[in-house]
TrEMBL record:
Recorded coiled-coil stretches: none
Residue ranges of the TM segments: 7-24, 63-80, 87-108, 114-135
Transmembrane as UniProt keyword: yes
Pfam families per the UniProt record, alphabetical: VanZ (PF04892)
Protein name: Predicted integral membrane protein
Signal peptide (from-to): none
Domain of life assignment: Bacteria
Record has Transmembrane as a keyword: yes
Keywords for this protein: Membrane, Transmembrane, Transmembrane helix
Domain (VanZ-like): residue spans on this chain: 12-135
Length: 154
């Protein structure tokens, strides 16, 4: 029971992290992602990898969306574990969080809401669900092989 409460607390913390970042005004959000962009841009320049800073900034911001929702998907699929349709429930939940995220940004100065960001967020959730599904299938298959081997040894 403690493990479940900790998992739910983690899920809620991820939601809050996403929504708190949505509340940041445009300048604050740009400064945060801009600092990360500058850091990576200098590393790429030292490695002689040419990329425009604007493209790199776009890639980093969209990767952040994807990553947040990837983690959200993995966390909430375990929270919804007791439900028969936990994968679709988690996906719908992730899309709902993404829509709320973009709705919040619509009202924040210097921010904009984007259906494209909702699609990226949804892709992050789906990728997280796919990874968990494949791991579960692999582990289940491995356990079945182990059980079959024990039966054969009897």
């Amino acid at each position: 029971m403690i493990k479940r409460k900790a998992l739910i607390s983690l899920g809620i913390a991820i939601n809050l992290f996403i929504w708190i970042n949505s509340i940041l005004p445009g300048n604050d959000s740009a400064n945060l992602s801009g600092g990360i962009t500058e850091f990576i841009y200098h590393i790429l320049n030292k490695l002689n990898i040419g990329i425009s800073i604007d493209l790199l900034s776009l890639m980093i911001r969209k990767l952040a969306h994807f990553t947040e929702f990837f983690i959200l998907g993995i966390t909430w699929v375990f929270i919804f574990k007791k439900y028969n349709y936990r994968y679709p429930i988690t996906f719908i939940y992730g899309l709902l969080v993404a829509l709320i995220d973009e709705f919040i940004q619509y009202f924040i100065p210097g921010r904009a809401s984007s259906i494209f960001d909702v699609a990226i967020d949804g892709a992050g959730v789906l990728f997280g669900l796919l990874i968990i599904y494949l791991l579960e299938v692999f582990i289940l298959r491995k356990n079945e092989i182990y059980i079959d081997k024990e039966k054969a040894d009897e």
